[in-house]
Amino acid sequence: VQLQASGGGLVQPGSSLRLSCAVSGFTLEDYNIGWFRQAPGKGREGVSCISSSDGSIYYADFVKGRFTISRDNAKNTVYLQMNSLKPEDTAVYYCAASGTPLVVPIGHELTLFMNALDAWGQGTQVTVSS
């Protein structure tokens, strides 16, 4: 199982980036797939995920309206379009997969995803700075 994230970089506040995650060793639609990030000195933060069961999408409050997750099953690739980037978005971004069904009270799906990760890859650095 491999997840390879790419697309990070150094950008100015307000800019956009598109992260990609190439997946191999498993079928994308069979797993919940998503992104988390980790800033220096901080813990992991779930950013977004897509449910394998019905394609429902979940976002952390701090990225709602700015980030968009998508997947291309034919290419076995997951994307994270990040718009209106802020300095506080600076972190290493990782794509990850979980096989645990997201059957939890509404609003807790991303938390379960983060607590039940089966695999994640090397991250890609995103730095937002003027």
Q: Would you spell out the secondary-structure blueprint of this structure?
A:
Layout lengths: L1 E5 L2 E3 L5 E8 L7 E7 L5 E7 L6 E3 L7 E6 L4 E6 L8 E8 L10 H7 L3 E2 L3 E5 L2
Parallel strand pairs: 2-11
Antiparallel strand pairs: 1-3, 3-8, 4-5, 4-9, 5-6, 7-8, 9-10, 9-11
Keywords:
130 residues, mainly beta, 7-stranded mixed sheet, 4-stranded antiparallel sheet, 11 strands
Task: Give your account of this protein's structure.
5% of the residues lie in helices and 46% in strands. It starts with a strand and ends with a strand. It has one helix at 109-115, and strands at 2-6, 9-11, 17-24, 32-38, 44-50, 57-59, 67-72, 77-82, 91-98, 119-120, 124-128. The model has no long low-confidence stretch (mean pLDDT 95). The protein is mostly beta strands. Strand 7 (67-72) and strand 8 form a beta hairpin. It is globular, with a radius of gyration of 14 Å. The strands form two sheets. Strands 2, 4, 5, 6, 9, 10 and 11 form a seven-stranded mixed β-sheet that branches. The chain has a four-stranded antiparallel β-sheet with strand order 1-3-8-7, with no helix packed on it. It has one helix and eleven strands, in the order E-E-E-E-E-E-E-E-E-H-E-E.
